Amino acid sequence: MLPSAQDAPVLVQVREMYKSFQHGSRKLEVLRGVNLTVRSGEMVTIIGASGAGKSTLLHCLGTLDLPTSGEILFSPVGGGTPTDITRLPPPDLAEFRNRTIGFVFQFHHLLPEFSALENAMMPALIARTPTRQAREQAEEMLDAVGMSDRLAHRPGELSGGEQQRVAIARALAMRPRLLLADEPTGNLDTRTSAEVHELLFRLNLEHDLSMLIVTHNMELAQQMPRVVRMADGRILEGDGQDVDPSNEPESPLASE
Ligand SMILES: Nc1ncnc2c1ncn2[C@@H]1O[C@H](COP(=O)(O)OP(=O)(O)OP(=O)(O)O)[C@@H](O)[C@H]1O
């Protein structure tokens, strides 16, 4: 953890989170009592073997899925009593997600018919932000990710790394408090992966943005300030302790 993040206020606290899926008569327990605290401006990397529950944790934290039990306590802006977002009614949840969370996935999911600028404006337009303001916010983030000279390009006219930069700009255009990234470089070559990680690192510092990044890339995880290791639906180490990613058992996806 960066020294500055150690004393920062808590942004989100996951308490005793369980998540199971029902398959016919069989119950698959994917998260089995996860506890995790992320502070404001903190960058956390999550590692662990395939099937450990990393994406499920991210989906629940990002309110894309609901845990079976447990609490996700988000501190309000400026402090005060945290809100358990697992109890928010659906309309409030959608609003919370749109304003508080940014998502970046392994595949960028940009809309092919729209330009880089239009893609980055989309979340703000969905939130009914006036077009001019949406455009300004999107342009500012596209500039921050080094894409200001590609605004009119469609995704098919961009390289893989550039597409992921646009996806990052789109995720950050609403100025979320938490960025959730699920293998954001899993689809990129080694050099481009390193560049995208470097970009995330810089955005974390410059925008004091909290980030949770799932990765199989141990080399890059080793450079990250805080590493949390998951196995079998639990956090083994890293919530309050340092993890040495070089001890991570070899994953079939380790080269991604
Ligand atoms: N919607 C779902 N329905 C049923 N089972 C699911 C669902 N989502 C995930 N699972 C199961 O939960 C387990 C954990 O999946 P998850 O995607 O969270 O793992 P992961 O650690 O992110 O793995 P990977 O590194 O391969 O992406 C897997 O066994 C998976 O099959």
From TrEMBL:
Q: Which UniProt keywords apply?
A: ATP-binding, Hydrolase, Lipoprotein, Nucleotide-binding, Transport
Q: Can you say what this protein is called?
A: Lipoprotein-releasing system ATP-binding protein LolD
**Which parts of the sequence belong to the ABC transporter domain?**
12-256
UniProt family annotation: Belongs to the ABC transporter superfamily. Macrolide exporter (TC 3.A.1.122) family.
- UniProt-listed CDD domains: ABC_MJ0796_LolCDE_FtsE
Q: GO terms for molecular function, please? A: ATP binding; ATP hydrolysis activity; transmembrane transporter activity
Top-level EC class, please?
hydrolase
Q: What is its EC number?
A: 3.6.3.-
Q: Which organism is it from?
A: Enhygromyxa salina
The record's GO CC annotations read:
membrane protein complex; plasma membrane
What top-level branch of life does the organism fall under? Bacteria
Per the record, which residues fall in region Disordered?
236-256
Pfam families on file: ABC_tran
